[in-house]
Design goal:
It is a single chain. The protein is of the alpha+beta class and 131 residues long. The chain contains 4 helices and 7 strands, in the order H-E-E-E-H-H-E-E-E-E-H. Strands 1, 2, 3, 4, 5, 6 and 7 form a 7-stranded antiparallel sheet that branches. A hairpin with a 4-residue loop joins strand 1 and strand 2.
Amino acid sequence: MANIKNLQMWNTICYDSRISISKSMFGLRTTAIYQPTNSIIDARTVEYSPPDGESLKRILTSPRTNISSAIGNFHPQPVPNGNYMAELCMSRDGAFVVVQILQYQQLRYNPVTEVLIFEGDDAHKVKQLFL
């Protein structure tokens, strides 16, 4: 599990009014909570191969009305040292998902999508991609 403060999308998450941030243990531990459902948000990163990364980018940036059909039966397979990385923040109840896709370029991961926020049914569908 990744430290939420180390994600490139940390600033976007901090300023989202739906999320509250609390610090404990002398500031060493940061907890994010999705306010509408009072659910803790877990962060992680997952690396993918170029074909899976391109497919994820295409699916996640498709119109929200077609998210179910865009996902279809696609299930990306994590790989070690992948060319693409997904930064994920998911509420434990599955009602809130934040994703940003990054690609390894010039010796670092650079964003290739905006920070994408999904709530409700869309969040549950997107969460299934990463389980």
